[in-house]
Structure formats: C-alpha cells, structure tokens
Amino acid sequence: REGLDEKENSRFEEIVTFTTNLEHVGDIIVRNLMELAAKKIRNRLAFSDAGLQDIHSLHERLANNLQLALGVFLSRDVKAARRLIAEKDEFRYLERAAVQSHLARLRSGRIESIETSALHLDVLRDLKRIHAHVASAAHPILEAAGELNRSRLKPAEPIPGAE
Description:
Layout: H1 6-42, H2 49-75, H3 78-107, H4 111-115, H5 117-135, H6 138-144
Helix pairs in contact: 1-5, 2-3, 2-5, 3-5, 3-6
C-alpha cells in the first residue's frame, strides 16, 4: 500500500473487501451447502417439487446477481450498483416468501417437507447469506458516490421526557 495515492488506496481496499467476501461465499458453500447436500444424499431425502423450485429460483437469481456484482466491481457503475442493492432487498423478500411457502407445506402435512424441513430452511438461509456477500460489492461504489445511507433503520422516535 506504500506509494499509493488516495484513489489507488481506496481501490486497493475495495479489491481486498471484494475478494474477502468471495472467500466467505466459498466458505458457506464448502462448510454449509456441501454438508447439507451430503446429508440429503446420505439420508436419501428429497425436497418437495415446490420446495425444490423455490431453491432453484433463488439460486438462479443469485447466479444472475453474482454476474451483476462482478460487473459493478469492475465498472464501478453507480446505476448498476443501485440495481444490485435493490436486488438485495428483493432477494430478502423472495427468501422470506420461500420460507413462508415451506412452513405452509409443513402445516399441510406434506411428508417430504417434514422430512427435509431443517435442511430446506438451512439451504434458503445460506443462499441469502451468500447473496448478502455478493451484493456488498455495491457498497463502496455507492458510498464513494454519496448514495449510501448510514443505516437502513428508520430514525427512532424520540422518547418523551428524554433529552
């Protein structure tokens, strides 16, 4: 990092952060998803058709957003970075909807959903975790452009009598 100007140093930090996030993605795949796949195979479990479709849909969206993230990282395109952050919100919504669909299948007594419940929910959770790491590629670009809020939290209501 010695001899780098401010712009070069900033890009260096972005590269390190991006590669670290990709490493975390790899860790989730190797330590979690591969173990879940092995457990599914070992126990000869099968997801319901609807559950498998939910997983496939999220995986496809994740793969598309990984391509978008790579483009954002390379181009530093603010508009694409904004799209990636919007995708993060949409992905979170879709993951929640998949969980709710799974829970509805459990309530209806679908045997394959009951047998694979923990496995299914773990896969959905890990896909969401991977997506969060992928979407983080947009943060430095949006921050540099002054388009990133400090927090997603709504401002707290003042507490009556507190100062």
